[in-house]
Automatic annotation (TrEMBL):
The gene is Exoc2. This is Exocyst complex component 2. It comes from Tychaedon coryphoeus. InterPro entries: EXOC2/Sec5, EXOC2/Sec5_N_dom. Component of the exocyst complex involved in the docking of exocytic vesicles with fusion sites on the plasma membrane. Belongs to the SEC5 family.
């Protein structure tokens, strides 16, 4: 075939001008050009249709990517972050590594919007206040969006600063309110208003304060935790004759000291905020903040590793919150426990007067409830130890303040003495004193009792010593009160209400029949009270001290008893001086009345009047003492007899000589006195009578002794009625 072709080519070239197919080619080219001219428009439309069809196919196939930027914006506005994240993950897997320029362009738009979403979610995450649910949600979103850094830790840091800021804002608001309240009260005191106007001002002020304290910055009332004040108001009465009202009651808030309401609000704030803060950390540690996608990507493991590295940092955060809580409370209640620099930061309160023991008891209960709530979160004990230290200091302070206030109350008991004497010779004062102590100790029961994890308030030696000294001061204060009452001038005693128990024997005139109470009667009442205090009240109080765990009770009792006995002895000596001295002083003038001479006197005919007068005066002392306190009679009478016998012995020993009749007269009077007061004789008075008789000449004749016996019997018979009191006292004394 090639050979034939070549032959044809050669022949054609020779015989025909040019190639034999040239003509055919030209014909075909002309036919093609004609065809192009005829179908150019149709073919153009076809190419355009094909191009459009191809573009539509591309758009249909990749419309997800092209619509994604707009869809992301719409879903962000609606808050459908889960949809955005799912679409982004899908786009990233399909076009994350594309080389097609148009895809790169649109994917870059997607990344721009996702970056804006990351910033938006981070802002929402760090926004305060927010719920734990929202915080976890935003952290998961940021994790799925592969946000740079560690959003969870950033959130923890932001919450930590937010809690600290809340605490300080709380303090500042109450300090300002305290100053405003003081200014308001000063205005009320310095301006004259009608009662209606005053009530209106108070109502308006309370409304403003309530609005301030419940501002959004501090509004935590939506929290479901019950108020410690409300809880306490239903379970205890912390003040004599009254009880705390509900913590939500505005009137109660107005009456309560600002520091108390502040501690209530501050602890509620911490207890409401810290649990979510702690749970956020726990979720961060165990990786539950992140979704399954994060777990598959290994982000959860990285988070756990970060959490382990930041444990110390978080511990410092918790400790800072606890320190701020404690120091803010110390600044309000125990400012002396802070350093000067700390006081400027955590104090600022106007401490016109210290809180009473009742309010401190309430504060302790509030802090205890808060501590229990925090312990329930399983926060390590070492982080909460500072709260236990605060509670211990508050308990110690509460005890000291309560004892100080009790001492002040005891000093005012003198104003309550009514001088009404019962059948035991007592007024109500010892009972009031004992009840005051018992009430004070009962109010401290919850403070003295140790809750789980608490130490004894008496673990420190200084506390033991302070409590012991205050207790001794209380006892001494009452002793001083007794002394003050018993030694007041007559004009200072109000006896308009004075009476004696109807069961008390009143043979020689009742006290209530007199218009005033004499100094001697007050001394007797005080002596009777002292006797009862020594034998009963002080011992009962010592038992109550021991029951409540007080240390050094033996010392308290010993010192108090010694002081009481010293007072008793001083009052007793004063009374004896009042009563015995006039009797003793009347003996010598009475003996020598009418120029009587022991050397030159007549035969005795009976006991002379001076001795009878002395006995009547002794009987008057007996009656006065017996009317107030039968138990004091032996003691007083024995001492009066001692004084009289001692003086009589002295007078007899001063006589240079006696006649026969003088000796008989002296012996008659000495024996008459001795036999009359025989039941009150003491070794001292017996010795005095013996010395007096020994100083007399002995009676030699039986006639003289018989006359002496007859005169003695005559004296006893004539004075029988007056001397009956001694016999009655004798039987009563024997019974006791």
């Amino acid at each position: 075939i090639p050979a034939i072709h070549q032959k044809l080519e050669a022949d054609g070239t020779e015989k025909v001008e040019g190639s034999m197919t040239q003509k055919l080619e030209n014909v075909l080219n002309r036919a093609s050009n004609t065809a192009d001219t005829l179908f150019q428009e149709v073919l153009g439309r076809k190419d355009k249709a094909d191009s459009t069809r191809n573009a539509l196919n591309v758009l249909q196939r990749f419309k997800f990517l092209f619509n994604l930027p707009l869809n992301i914006e719409r879903n962000i506005q609606k808050g459908d972050y889960d949809v955005v994240i799912n679409d982004y993950e899908k786009a990233k897997s399909l076009f994350g590594k594309t080389e097609v320029q148009v895809f790169k362009k649109y994917y870059a738009e997607v990344e721009t919007r996702i970056e804006a979403l990351r910033e938006l979610l981070l802002d929402k995450l760090l926004e305060t206040p927010s719920t734990l649910h929202d915080q976890k949600r935003y952290i998961r979103y940021l994790s799925d969006l592969h946000a740079p850094g560690d959003p969870a830790w950033q959130c923890i840091g932001a919450q930590h600063q937010w809690i600290l800021q809340l605490m300080h804002n709380c303090k500042e608001s109450y300090v300002k309110e305290q100053k405003g309240k003081d200014t308001f009260l000063f205005y009320l005191h310095t301006h004259t208003h009608t009662h209606t106007h005053t009530y209106i001002y108070i109502y308006v002020y309370m409304y403003i304060c309530n609005a301030l304290l419940h501002s959004p910055m501090l509004d935590l009332d939506s929290d479901v935790r019950p108020s410690p004040i409300g809880h306490l108001s239903q379970t205890a009465s912390l003040k004599r004759g009254s009880s705390f009202q509900s913590g939500r009651d505005d009137a109660w808030r107005y009456k309560a000291p600002q520091q108390v309401v502040f501690v209530e609000k501050l602890t509620k704030l911490v207890v409401s905020q810290l649990p979510n803060f702690w749970k956020l950390w726990v979720s961060y540690v165990n990786g539950s903040l992140f979704s399954e996608t994060a777990e598959k990507s290994g982000q959860m493991e990285r988070s756990k590793k970060n959490a382990r590295q930041r444990q110390n940092d978080f511990k410092k955060m918790i400790q800072e919150v606890m320190h701020s809580l404690v120091k803010l409370i110390r600044g309000a209640l125990l400012p002396f426990s802070l350093r000067e620099g700390e006081l400027r930061q955590y104090g600022g309160w106007e401490m016109k007067s210290e809180l009473s023991g009742q309010w401190l008891t309430h504060v302790i209960q509030t802090v205890r409830l808060s501590s229990e709530s925090l312990t329930a979160l399983e926060i390590p004990n070492d982080m909460l130890q500072i709260i236990q230290d605060l509670i211990l200091d508050l308990r110690v302070r509460c005890i000291l303040v309560t004892l100080q206030h009790t001492a002040e109350d005891i000093k005012r008991l003198a104003e309550k003495e009514d001088w009404v004497v019962d059948n035991e010779g007592l007024t109500s004062l010892p009972s009031q004193f004992e009840q005051c102590i018992i009430h004070s100790l009962q109010s401290l029961k919850t403070v003295l009792d140790c809750k789980p994890g608490e130490a004894s308030v008496f673990q420190q030696q200084k506390t033991q010593e302070d409590v012991c000294q205050l207790s001794i001061g209380i006892m001494q204060g009452f002793i001083d009160c007794l002394e003050q009452l018993s030694t007041k001038p007559d004009g200072d005693i109000d006896t308009s209400h004075l009476s004696v128990d109807v069961s008390s024997p009143d043979l020689f005139g009742s006290i209530h029949e007199e218009s005033s109470l004499s100094s001697e009667q007050r001394l007797l009442i005080a002596l009777s009270n002292c006797r009862y205090l020594e034998r009963h009240t002080f011992l009962n109080i010592a038992e109550h001290f021991e029951k409540h765990g007080f240390q050094g009770v033996d010392k308290i009792t010993q010192v108090s008893m010694e002081s009481l006995k010293e007072l008793d002895q001083r009052l007793f000596e004063m009374y004896i001086e009042f009563k015995a001295d006039p009797i003793v002083g009347s003996l010598e003038p009475g003996i020598y009345a009418g120029y009587f001479d022991w050397k030159d006197c007549l035969v005795p005919t009976g006991v002379r009047n001076y001795l009878k007068e002395a006995l009547v005066n002794i009987i008057a002392v007996h009656a006065e003492v017996f009317t107030i306190s039968k138990d004091l009679v032996p003691r007083v009478m024995s001492r009066v007899v001692e004084a009289v016998s001692e003086e009589l012995s002295r007078l007899m020993q001063c006589v240079s000589s006696f006649s026969k009749n003088g000796a008989l007269q002296a012996k008659l009077e000495i024996c008459a006195l001795r036999d009359t007061v025989a039941i009150y004789l003491t070794p001292e008075s017996k010795s005095s009578f013996k010395q007096a008789l020994e100083s007399l000449p002995q009676l030699s004749s039986g006639t003289d002794r018989k006359l002496l016996e007859e005169l003695l019997n005559k004296f006893k018979s004539s004075m029988h009625l007056q001397l009956t009191c001694f016999q009655a006292s004798s039987s009563a004394m024997m019974k006791t």
